[in-house]
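[Meeting: bench + compute handoff]

Bench side (C.D.) handed over the final construct sequence. Compute side (W.E.) agreed to return the predicted structure before the next meeting so the bench team could plan truncations. Sequence as handed over:
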Amino acid sequence: EVQLVESGGGLMQPGESLRLSCAASGFTFSNFAMSWVRQGPGKGLEWVAGIASRGATYYADSVKGRFTISRDNAKNTLFFEMTNLESEDSALYSCAAGRFYGLGNYAYRGQGTQVTVSS
């Protein structure tokens, strides 16, 4: 059974940092490009960052310079380091397999972890 399980979300204040994790199982994680996508309250799904199977990274302009995507293929885990959080970053963050850039038909997608940024 394929699983993508996100963790690490929480209630944060503006300017703080947070690290999200996505534990993958049931498929060959190292062979797949991965992305983080998010959906804020009342907003559509937004692609925010992606990483190719060999590690090349890509970011949406809204998070470039503040967030870092990485992966540990030995541990089948995807990470998302989020710094200098802003209220606009409040969203349900999900990891998705199969693409490293933009929205599209992901092979798999997790249920998400909630990040709320509020003072």
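W.E. noted at the follow-up: Residues 30 and 73 are 5 Å apart (CA to CA). C.D. will use this when planning the next construct.
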